[in-house]
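Annotated sample (chain length 340).
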Amino acid sequence: MLILDEATSALGPQRDGVAARAFARGWPKAGTLVIYISHRLGEVRQIADRITVFRNGATVAAYDTQDVDDETIIADMLGRRMDRLYPDRKPTATERVAVRLRGFGAGHRLADIDLDLREGEVLGVAGMQGHGQRELFQALFGIGGARGTVEIWGKAKTIRGPRQALTGRDGLALVPEDRRNHGLLLSRSVRENLTLSVISRFTRVGLTDPKREAKLVDEMIAALKIKAGTPEQLAGTLSGGNQQKVIFGKMLLTEARILLLYDPTRGIDVGTKGEIFQLMRDLAAKGYAILFYSSDLAELVHVADRVAVLRNRRLATILEGEDNSERQILRAAMIETRAA
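Output written by the structure step:
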């Protein structure tokens, strides 16, 4: 028996993901029982002969793969029908530039990036795995050395570390790709994780104001619908989706208006994905500027206003409107194009 739990969640959707799926399909032919756990329904359909759906720790349905459609599976996962996964994408971007990069680079995997992120915009970032996406997000958040010119809300800025990036409403906040190792303190409570970055807001002369802290925490838990027994529940005991919500809550409490979201829906359930997509569009409508990378091209196509495609360390092109499609993203990622 071989159990694969989110085996491809950290892999790209192109080459590495295909290799992993081929590996999983090969084992049954050798007589091995494979239990494949994934939130990527497309993968499940390619691999599984039968599909079993869990909800709240119990089996709610089981099907032969060819006898069930995705909408039925999603309804079983949620306990209700979901009209659509992706929210309406109404244009909310203004002409004001939140982040302007000129000749921006970091390390040996990112060079000469010219890019504008506007207020009220969700700007997607795509590309083959390892072509500079991670370096772009980390460098903007002050992790690793960066070169080139960075303007934040029209002012030149050098970001020397995450503490400097998180400077109130003019700052940048990051949702990292690895929530368990880089986004949360799993052995600490939901409350502590939410307020760790903003503890100075309710601390005076070295003493915290527990009532003010509790108010902020309760409001954020309610706003993001974080499912926790109490604010004192350990973050490590939450589901993956609720852990990700805690990271979003921590980020929003910093009041930073530029959000760097690196694969924020990786390995979480479809219901929470829909909530995060809606949150992103709601925040954009409020004037937040959002840089959004996803290993799932469909998310970029349906959620982002424009998609910047990186290829061989550089910006290959920017896609928008009818050109923003999975086919065009892959084409730009693999075939030499001129930057827009």
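Annotation: The chain has a mean pLDDT of 88.
Annotation: The chain has two domains: 2-78, 97-334.
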